Amino acid sequence: MISYIIWDVNPEIFTIPEIAGFGPFPVRWYGLLFAAGFLIGQQIMIHIFKKEGKPQEDIDALTLYMVISTVLGARIGHFLFYQPEVLFKNPLEVIMPPYAGLASHGAIIGIITGLLLYSRSRASSGQSFLWVADRIVIVVALTGCFIRFGNLMNHEIVGKLTDVPWGFIFLQNTEFSQNPRHPAQLYESISCLVLFFILFALWNKYKTKTPRGLLVGVFFVWVFTLRFLYEFLKENQEAFEADYALNMGQMLSIPAVALGLFFILKSRQNQLPD
């Protein structure tokens, strides 16, 4: 007898009624989890800054840089990689709600850009790009866990057909609601949670002596190697991907893994400049 899991969770928690002609505004699990990742991540960075004697007043600025760069990077990345025709015809759609498309590869590019801008004026306090990046990936991993769980609550980014006993039937996804599928979102969410504990343990071991680039390298290799493999279990996000041996997520993951290996090797040599 084949067993499976019926997934019929409502993506909306509740709806704020219309007020003075504005609304109604649905409050969704995805948005709540997205915000929780940043809020909890901020508390973790406060702990790290305190342990390493960095200015606590910089936390708010770092959080603002991360929120803006993550959202903008994810939005631009989605249109650039998956719907370039929309980006060039109507670029304002990047900042216009609803934010239905977010690309993780674009978010990473946005985060790198944000960290470069943030660290430019803070080198004197010991917050070089690599110092900040090695610590911010800890909270990025945790936020990734929350976001992928939000995808599960949204019944989106579903996996391919499966007969494994933990297969999910996503009842509220009208395109893929008939048969059990891999809960690919849950696989990635759990993987990010495991990575969070690994990165935090590495930082906790070395703290101020953390080899420059080590945590960034581990993050890139872990996340994008697994992303490459998980894509074999997922439905393509866009129709054009069916024409390629590897989908867009896999093609973008290959250079990310190579970059991660570079950082790990250089961190072992301890020769990376700040």
TrEMBL record:
Its EC number is 2.5.1.145. A 1,2-diacyl-sn-glycero-3-phospho-(1'-sn-glycerol) binds at R148. Pathway: Protein modification; lipoprotein biosynthesis (diacylglyceryl transfer). GO terms for molecular function: phosphatidylglycerol-prolipoprotein diacylglyceryl transferase activity. It is found in: Cell membrane. Keywords: Cell membrane, Lipoprotein, Membrane, Transferase, Transmembrane, Transmembrane helix. The chain crosses the membrane at residues 29-49, 61-82, 94-117, 129-149, 184-202, 214-233, 245-265. It holds the Pfam family LGT. GO terms for biological process: lipoprotein biosynthetic process. HAMAP family: Lgt. Belongs to the Lgt family. Catalyzes the transfer of the diacylglyceryl group from phosphatidylglycerol to the sulfhydryl group of the N-terminal cysteine of a prolipoprotein, the first step in the formation of mature lipoproteins. PANTHER family: PHOSPHATIDYLGLYCEROL--PROLIPOPROTEIN DIACYLGLYCERYL TRANSFERASE (PTHR30589:SF0), PROLIPOPROTEIN DIACYLGLYCERYL TRANSFERASE (PTHR30589). This is Phosphatidylglycerol--prolipoprotein diacylglyceryl transferase. It comes from Dyadobacter luteus. The lineage of its organism: Bacteria, Pseudomonadati, Bacteroidota, Cytophagia, Cytophagales.
